[in-house]
Amino acid sequence: MNNKNKLILLSLIILFSAGLTTACGFRVLNGRESSVAGSAAYGKKLKKYNDISEIYVKPFKNFTYKSGIGIYFSNNIANFLDTQTYMFTSNKNNALYYLSGKITSIQNNVMSYTGVAAAVDYDITVNVIVSMYNTDGKIIFRSVGFSSSATYYNYINPLVAHKQEKEAIIRTSKRIARKILIYIESKKLTS
After folding, report:
1. Residue 189, Cα to own-chain centre: how many angstroms?
2. Does residue 10 fall inside a structural domain?
């Protein structure tokens, strides 16, 4: 094997091993991201809203026609709680609060057509219902609805269209995560 082939092989091994460490879609929920304790240990300032901290995000249930989207919402909400407020914990057994939710509907609406009557611009709206309670069973809030929309361009190629739709759903999940955080923060004002 010449040096060029060895270099290519080494590069592929490095790329493959790097891909294994980042490929899992469940990395936030299964404890591989930092928890509240881990965040505090690295000098991040722990924020508490009405003494709400160490929230474990349960995987969202999906009641829509789109399979597999519950993980986008669970991961993005957990990630947002961890990076923006450090209120997230990946350790279910040490959590003080549980956040659960379900995706109740997805509506995909045509926004514009091309000259040959092919739909090209879509608006997708996602609705979720979220509840939060502490480990003693006290309900902090129950069945609160959140929704968000995003537009995407539907290319002629169905594979590209699917990717665009998926990215729009991920954008809505991030927007809903922010709305949930604001709602948790508002609990401080009402107590």
Report:
1. 26
2. no
Question: Computed over its alpha carbons, how large is the radius of gyration of the chain?
Answer: 20
Distance in angstroms (rounded) separating the CA atoms of residues 98 and 88 = 10
**Cα–Cα dist 57/101, whole Å:** 9
pTM: 0.68
Q: What is the pLDDT of residues 25-37, one digit of tens each?
A: 334 444 433 333 3
- Nearest of 57, 62, 80, 67 to residue 174 by alpha carbon: 80
Considering the domain boundaries, does residue 16 fall inside one? Answer: no
Q: Is residue 14 part of a domain?
A: no
User: Domain total for the chain?
Assistant: 1
Which amino acid, 182? I
3-state secondary structure of 187: helix
Q: Does residue 122 form part of some domain?
A: yes
pLDDT above 70 coverage of the chain, percent: 67
Chain position carrying tokens 């947002």 = 80
CB atoms near residue 189 (< 10 Å): 8
CATH number of domain containing 186 = 3.30.160.150
Give the torsion through C-alpha atoms of 191, 47, 35, 180, to 10 deg.
50
